[in-house]
TrEMBL record:
Entry protein name: Siderophore-interacting protein
One of the Pfam families matching this protein, by short name: FAD_binding_9
InterPro entries in UniProt: FAD-bd_FR_type, FNR_nucleotide-bd, Riboflavin_synthase-like_b-brl, SIP_FAD-bd, SIP_fam, SIP_rossman_dom
FAD-binding FR-type domain segment(s): 6-131
Organism this protein belongs to: Microlunatus ginsengisoli
Length: 297
């Protein structure tokens, strides 16, 4: 179930272009985006509500429990989470990059998007937050997280040291970024993305960590994210404020959801109890992820 959002924005397509063989960039505008509020996170997440089959515009939401959202049911428009690749406050326009492939609601919509097509956009949040005193950053991503990685790199303050390791589908999917930071980028292709085992964990293990306090950010498929989190937390012994590791998507998601539903009540009880015990933010996420692992998820 999608989380209800207090803010909801109507947006229309004002630009479409192919970035690389497997990435489309779509620019959204419209008067309603003039009241858009950015979270400011480099990996700013937004939920996109797509038109239903045969429509060019997403239906208007309704108030559900005092908030603008869609009622659950067959009439609910499909939605997916994406990164706000760039927010242009002056022109009230934002860009979202879509990994395109055969099948899938979002990819199919992006491939056929035309000027004037309408979507709904949610409020935003994000996770990327290097603590004060960080002297270097290691950023790892697959194609789905490449838009977030690109924005993070482009917004780095002058002189910030960072190394990025990016797993893409084809060599031509590599991109260039303008940044004031001191950034190096390593591209890996032909692995991960549901076609082969990911190389991100091995790349992390091979990385020569600089001296001083660092920060690791990774976003990729859920299982590789879990493996990387376990390595960073348990084998490297890093404190949770020094890394953010997120699962952006999941191989065989429907199978996983079926198993999760069998454990749903138990896991919700774990989450509720953790909140009652005062866990918040990264500590709460870490606790819940450990509960998922214990449940075989």
């Amino acid at each position: 179930m999608s989380k209800p959002h207090e803010e909801y924005y109507r947006a229309e397509v004002v630009g479409v272009r192919r970035l690389t063989p497997n990435m489309m960039r779509i620019r959204f505008g419209g008067d309603d985006l003039r009241r858009f509020r950015t979270s400011g996170f480099g990996d700013e997440r937004i939920c996109v509500f797509f038109p239903r089959p045969g429509d060019r515009h997403t239906p208007e939401p309704v108030y559900v429990d005092g908030r603008l959202d869609y009622s659950d049911g067959p009439g609910r428009p499909p939605s997916r989470s994406y990164t706000v690749r760039r927010w242009d406050a002056e022109n009230a326009e934002l860009e979202i990059d879509f990994v395109v492939h055969e099948g899938g609601v979002a990819a199919g919509w992006a491939l056929s998007a035309q000027l004037g097509d309408g979507v709904g956009l949610s409020a935003t949040d994000g996770w990327y937050a290097p603590p004060e005193g960080t002297q270097w950053q290691l950023l790892l991503a697959d194609m789905t997280a490449l838009p977030a990685l690109g924005r993070i790199i482009e917004e780095l303050p002058a002189g910030t040291r960072a190394h990025a390791i990016v797993e893409v589908i084809f060599p031509d999917d590599a991109q260039t970024f303008e940044t004031a930071g001191d950034v190096t980028v390593e591209w890996i292709h032909g692995t991960g993305h549901g076609h082969a085992p990911s190389a991100l964990l091995d790349a992390l293990k091979a990385y020569d960590f600089p001296d001083g306090p660092g920060y690791i950010w990774l976003a990729a498929e859920a299982s590789i994210s879990r493996d990387v989190r376990k390595y960073v937390r348990r084998e490297l012994g890093w404190p949770i404020e020094r890394f953010e590791i997120i699962g952006y998507w999941r191989v065989r998601k429907e199978e996983w959801l079926a198993r999760w539903r069998e454990k749903e009540a138990e896991l919700e009880a774990v989450y509720t109890q953790a909140q009652a015990d005062g866990l918040r933010g990264p500590e709460l996420r870490e606790h819940y992820l450990e509960a998922l692992e214990k449940a075989g998820l």
